[in-house]
Each structure stands twice: as structure tokens, then as C-alpha cells.
Amino acid sequence: MNTLQLILAGTIVMMSLGIFVVIMVVLQQKQVIQYKLILKDKDLQLQKERLVAVLQGQETERKRIAEDLHDEVGAQLSVLKLSLNHLQQLAGNGEKEKIKETKEFTDGIIQQLRFISQSLHPTTLENLGLSHALDSFASLMNKNRQIAIQFRTDGSTHPVDREKALNVYRVVQELMNNILKHAEARQVLITWQSTRKPSPSA
Q1: Buried/exposed 145-179: b ≥16 CB within 10 Å, e otherwise
Q2: Mapping DSSP to helix (H, G, I), strand (E, B) and coil, where does residue 154 land?
Q3: Measured between alpha carbons, how far is 188 from 134 in angstroms, rounded to an integer?
Q4: What is the pLDDT at residue 201?
Q5: What local confidence, expressed as pLDDT, does residue 110 receive?
Q6: How many beta carbons lie within 10 A of that of residue 100, not counting itself?
Q7: How far apart (Å, rounded) are the C-alpha atoms in residues 169 and 174?
Q8: Low-confidence ranges of the chain (pLDDT < 70)
Q9: Angle at alpha carbon of residue 128, lines to 124 and 133, rounded to 5°
Q10: How many separate helices (H) and strands (E) can be counted in the chain?
Q11: For a tag site, which of 2, 33, 79, 180 has the least CB within 10 Å?
Q12: Residue 153 confidence (pLDDT)
């Protein structure tokens, strides 16, 4: 083998080694990128699970507080109202007016308590569904007389996933809070329309 053949063979070997090294580097980088993507996906999944756990914890605590308000404080206020009714029957003319004012004040507290309890944990949502819960929410807001709220629905009764329904309800609550604080609106229309397509008839 002469010198030219040796140089040519050496060049081919070096080029082959170079190509091999480049391929190995590319494959290694590809593996690193895939590994980083897997780690990123796992991190996103972990963050999602943590967020869901936090939200579920908040809803559980809201439910507990709402039940305590309704069962304990609400019951005590109802007993107070009954006691005032009894006192009003026994009181003289001058005292009846004061007791009447106290009863009206107690009724206002009971109404506010129901509103807070419903806002914390909408039992209507669990029992009757999203449409009824939004209708009940609008009615409660109207009783506060801060703003006139109208609720419209297409009459759909198909069930909505509980988690999705709760998310929609919380969004409506937050929107209403922002409207009350910033919009200076006098009227609000809440519309619920089903996007579920009816199944084809046989």
C-alpha cells in the first residue's frame, strides 16, 4: 500500500470516526432533551395535582364553615327570632315597636347569613345542578338590592360535571364581585345555555 492509499484510508477512518462522534453527540442531546421534557411534564403534572389539592382543600373548608354558619348560627338566630315574637306578644305598646325593629334587624342578619353560607358553599349546586344554583345566586344577590340581576336559561337539564360546574359558579361569583366594585352597573344579565348537542333520533 503506497502513501496515497494510506492517506486516503486514514482520511476515511477519521471521517467515519467524526461522523460517529457527531451521531453520538446528537443522540445524547436528543436523550437529554427528552429527559428534560419528561421532567417538565412531571413537574407540570405535580403542580396541577398540588393546585387541585389546594382548591379541594379550600372547598372542603368553605363547606365546613358554611354548614357551621347554617346549622349553628342560623339555628340560634331562628331561636332568637321566636323569642322576640313571644316577647312582642307580652310587651306593652311602647316596647312592641322596639322589639319589631329588633326582629327586622334579626331578619336582616339571617338573610346575610344565608347569603354568606350560599356563597361559601352552594348546596343548590350539589342538589339541583348548575342552572338552579346560578338562579338561586341571582335571587340572593337581588335580595341585597345593590344591583338588579336577571337570570336566563335555555331550560337544559342535562347534568354538568361537578368540578366544572363549581368552577363556572366561582367564575360567576368573581365576575359579580368585580361588577359590584368597579362597573357601577344597575342591571346584570346572567345567561346559561347548554352547548351539548342533542342525540340524533332513532
Answers
A1: eebebebebeebeeebeeeebbebbeebeeebeeb
A2: coil
A3: 13
A4: 41
A5: 82
A6: 13
A7: 9
A8: 1, 144-146, 156-158, 194-202
A9: 45
A10: 6, 2
A11: 2
A12: 82
Plot region of 155 (φ>0 → left; ψ -120 to 50 → alpha; else → beta): left
CA distance between the termini of the chain:
85
Query: Would you mind telling me the total number of residues written for the chain in this entry?
Result: 202
Q: For position 156, what pLDDT does the model report?
A: 67
Distant-in-sequence, close-in-space partners of 133: CB < 8 Å, separation ≥ 6: 122, 124, 125, 165, 169
How buried is 180 (Cβ within 10 angstroms: 0-12 exposed, 13-18 middle, 19+ buried)? middle
* In the block, residue with C-alpha cell 353560607: 117
Query: Is this structure's pTM higher than 0.70?
Result: no
